[in-house]
Amino acid sequence: MAGQRWFFVVNPVAGNRKVREAWPQIADKLNAAGVDYEFRWTEGPGLAAGMVREAIATGYRNFVAVGGDGTGNEVANGMLDQDEVPTDDLLFTLLPIGTGNDWVRQNKIPGNIPDWIRFLRNGRIARQDAGWVRYCASDGEQKRFFINVMGLGYDGYVAKAAAAEGGKVANKLSYLLLVFRCMFSYRTPTMSIRFDDGEVKGKMYAVVAGINKYSGGGFQLVPHAHPNDGRLALTIARRLSKLEVLLLSPLFYTGWINWHPAISLHDVREAFVEPMEGDEVLVEADGELLGTAPARIGIVPDALRILVP
Fold it and tell me: What is the per-residue DSSP string for 271-285?
């Protein structure tokens, strides 16, 4: 927005390292347009949130994540997980140069730099909910906010595979190939899922909770999600065969996944997912591997002020 001072958090390795190459040209265009900003490079995974908290302490209130959904998640966590100022004083948006751009897809934010700069000057302020998840990590229970979609089971398994490859998922096609490759080694875990007044137990392929409906480069695994309705969109997929997953895959993009009787859609305020029979259930949020269940998932209504077209 015109007259605003912005803090850009720039992830140099986002988009298969495209950001590092593109940033000098982007900075030239920002300078030519008279945008008032400062930027910092992220130095490694998990550091952007602390960088944002430090920037808030020095007076910044408006933040741009430069990268993909993972960078956006870290910046949003820095804004939401702090006590320096009320979150109503802060503003978030994203400049998309990552491999995962599902948050901008939901919000129709342009990727062309001149168009994006016009958007930054003329955008409007909206509100969206934020989800949170408490999960198990090597150093004990942790809490993480998410602004798009989080998943347990297969989604976590794919995130672990991506992390094992150094996070180098170059494009949508390579991610899709990873998704299907993981299918052949994945073992469906047994879980207990409690949500509001419901409970489901048994072999579960995946559990997905969403604020927005897109993930994985355009999948609609929570097609019933609304960003500011104060509810979590919850999708539960019971045991599915490899053939069923293959046949279902076109529906991932259409939002019609509940056509299959093993898949159910719910709107909830809170959910608790617990492994059973000694199985491991991996947890991811906004595409980033976090840890394992047991996990509790909840929502903070209208938590984040965002800039949208």
Answer: EEEEEETT---EEEE
